[in-house]
Input
Amino acid sequence: MRKYDILLCDADDTLLDFALCEKTAVAALLSEFGVKADDALLSSYSEHNDRLWKMLERGEITMQELIFLRFREFFKLHGIKGDGDRAAVRYREILSKYAFTTDGAKELLDRCKGKVRVYVISNGKAEVQISRFKLAGITDNTDGLFISELLGTKKPDTDFFVKAASSISDFSKERALVYGDSLTADIAGGIAFGVDTCWYNPHGKANENGPVPKYEIRTHKELYPILHI
Output
């Protein structure tokens, strides 16, 4: 296998357990609006939010629209009384305080030290992501952060990867690997940019007519032999 020494690594649902972060933050938010969140309500929010993120990736809505639409529409859908725009602002404040990592994420970053340079590639609001990265210890254990809001472009747009690569010294497409959980953002973006990709698929989801990554793994440990670490 080839030797990669640059890892472009996704954050949410790859290094960070976003599902748990989201569930905890949404439950805390709804409690402030007098709503007790059960599993069905939290699942409904997650599905609604995922749909909007896919629309963002396709360029159908902007990040600003996503931020406010998700709570306006979610509150309306479930008859929740309250200001959806205020909820959107408060949600970001709450979410920025949660940074649970996925199994083996910290060990992966430790293994990469001195062998593979790791750069985080993330769509999202900078203030929220930077806070969460610091809490999780990601900031101190990686070589750089590339966040869509700061780059002015998002995954899977090729321009996102071009801008990130231009800020990495001695960057080489042949030595770089994109690693992430999203076929539509990470894998599709990496392939379009012309670098090898590795799909982190811990739940064994089926790839139904999506982009085909060079590698597919279930655990972070399976990345060790690919990176030769």
